[in-house]
Write a structure and sequence with these properties.
about 575 residues; two-stranded antiparallel sheet; 6 strands; about 5% strand; globular
Length: about 575
């Protein structure tokens, strides 16, 4: 752990804090329908889109109508992506003449990109054409991110409104998320990436001859445009199999910095939007503080674990010196080093991004435990664009409910009484997540022909690889330990279903809670009201998140990375 690494971390966090407030206030104006500096250019485009698609922007929806619109939009777009994958051999921009994607893999990929997961059970360079990458996948990067933001805004409206039957218009919210936020930033971001060396073209792959007179195929394509939205929209699916460790995706220290910053930018800004739209800026700061505490703790733990020498490589070679100076560099890019690899791994799993600049499978057992635990908390430590905010707000409701039980009165949250229905919806949201992860992990472990046949490692590390796959899928993260070959019928189908459950079955109870909160009357604060804008609330919220995550997943983590750490100290490898 070095001074240089700490300075890089502080610079990143400082820039994030400087940018999140103006962006958050801007988003509050956008989704409130107020005038912004972008209106002269974008307002006519927005109106034209509504006329083309028959959207009545002035009409709002109940939570049920909002939910149905969200599900229909996602289902139709998923079918479109599936069709593009299957028919890609006949579609344009396929200079490598790649065949259509197999049915089970096409299903898995369509589910993956629809749910903002971007799990990739394939090698992109040899599987997806330029047309599929741009029209099928990058299109979903925009849409799935916009859906997450729209749903988060709907929940914030439910909290902020009084005696209202509606929570907004889904089509308006999605359009504004793309038009006023994602598209403009991505245009600028993609230009910066191209300037730094990220490629953007439609050329066929290049065949080069090495100094050893061997032929090497150098893949290329429209990378910068997909890289920008994959980061800003917390999607994570790489154009190349090596993802952000590939020099065509992440060539310089500046691109590495910008990519990490863009992952956290919108989720952090939405905490400011929460405070503005609810009229409680202090509450937004308290939520941000909780996210920050969990983020910093995870980063420090990962960095510390990776900075330690491997227990079996701590000796000294008389000719070359220490066997592993500076810590564990296996699976890491030398140009990024341990600190930036640990920071990237923490950020990408705190958010539901999944992009990687190092191999999580090569981390030390405790170093790999932190990214896994980050996802298990529910992708709420900043989280995905939108999904992180509505996920942590569910925990806010639970924290307020627990606080109410402590003082023996009906809990209140920003003037709304939290009642049985709200707690039931919150608990349904919380329980779906571990249920699908643990059940499917257990089935995979107990079914050798389905779950173990494509596993590269045994013992606790093998369990961690399977557990990480289902955790990543349910958390809509998309990163992997990658010691598991997931391109099998079982994993393609089961992980695809897990991604859909982790996205949509958790959205529905959350939107139901939003609709119920919107209908409530405002209750004036009293001496017994628990303040949700204080440091004490931040501590309570952090404790609730950790306790729920620890009680649910600690047993399986003990059998995976914790046991592997203990056995590694005893000299056993897997």
């Amino acid at each position: 752990m070095t001074v240089h690494g700490w300075l890089q971390f502080l610079l990143l966090f400082g820039v994030l804090v400087l940018l999140m407030r103006p962006l958050g206030l801007y988003l509050a104006r956008v989704f409130a329908g107020e005038r912004t500096f972008a209106d002269p250019v974008l307002k006519p485009v927005e109106g034209l889109l509504y006329r083309l698609f028959g959207v009545r922007g002035e009409e709002e929806m109940t939570w049920g109508e909002y939910t149905v619109s969200m599900l229909l939009c996602s289902f139709v777009s998923m079918l479109l992506t599936y069709g593009i994958e299957r028919m890609q051999r006949w579609l344009p921009w396929n200079p490598q003449h790649l065949a259509g994607v197999a049915p089970d893999l096409a299903w898995n990929t369509a589910a993956s990109f629809t749910t903002n997961t971007n799990w990739q059970s394939y090698v992109p360079e040899t599987t997806m054409s330029y047309f599929t990458q741009m029209v099928g996948l990058a299109y979903h990067n925009f849409l799935s991110a916009a859906v997450g933001i729209a749903v988060a805004i709907a929940l914030v409206r439910g909290i902020a409104r009084r005696e209202s039957k509606t929570i907004g218009n889904f089509w308006v919210d999605v359009t504004r998320a793309v038009l006023y936020l994602l598209l403009p930033i991505c245009i600028v971001f993609a230009g910066l990436l191209v300037q730094q060396g990220v490629i953007q073209n439609l050329k066929p792959y290049t065949t080069a001859v090495t100094l050893e007179h061997q032929k090497q195929t150098i893949a290329q394509g429209p990378v910068a445009s997909q890289e920008a939205i994959k980061m800003l929209g917390t999607n994570g699916g790489g154009f190349f199999n090596a993802n952000s460790a590939h020099p065509f995706e992440n060539p310089t220290p500046l691109t590495n910095f910008l990519e990490m910053l863009s992952i956290f930018l919108v989720p952090a800004a939405l905490t400011v939007t929460l405070g503005k739209m609810t009229g409680a800026p202090g509450h937004g700061r308290a939520v941000f503080a909780c996210m920050t505490v969990l983020f910093v703790a995870g980063f420090v733990a990962t960095w510390w674990a990776e900075a330690q020498p491997h227990p079996l490589l701590h000796g000294v070679d008389q000719r070359t010196g220490p066997l592993q100076p500076g810590g564990n560099m296996e699976g890491k890019e030398v140009r990024f080093g341990i600190s930036q690899s640990a920071l990237f791994a923490t950020i990408t799993t705190d958010a539901s991004c999944g992009a990687v600049n190092s191999m999580h499978d090569s981390f030390m057992p405790l170093g790999g435990l932190v990214p896994l635990a980050n996802i298990m908390l529910g992708e709420i430590v900043f989280g995905g664009v939108g999904s992180g905010l509505y996920g942590i707000l569910v925990y806010v409701v639970l924290a307020v409910f627990i606080a109410g039980l402590m003082v023996g009165r009906t809990p209140e949250y920003l003037g709304k009484k939290i009642e049985a229905y709200d707690v039931k919806m919150a608990m349904l949201y919380v329980l779906i997540f571990p249920l699908v992860i643990l059940v499917l992990t257990a089935i995979s472990v107990l079914a050798p022909q389905m779950g173990l046949s494509s596993l590269n490692n045994g013992g606790p590390h093998g369990l961690s690889e399977i557990l990480y796959a289902f955790t990543s899928a349910a958390g809509n993260n998309g990163s992997a330990f990658a010691g598991l070959n997931a391109n099998t019928h079982w994993y393609n189908l089961s992980l695809g279903a897990t991604m859909l459950i982790g996205r949509f079955l958790m959205m529905v109870p959350m939107l139901a809670m939003a609709g119920n909160l919107a209908q409530k009357k405002s209750v004036p604060p009293s001496p017994g009201t628990f303040p949700v804008n204080s440091g004490l609330f931040t501590v309570l919220l952090t404790g609730v998140i950790l306790i729920v995550g620890a009680l649910t997943f600690f047993p399986v983590l003990s059998l995976g990375p914790v046991l592997e750490h203990l056995l590694l100290r005893a000299g056993q490898l897997f």
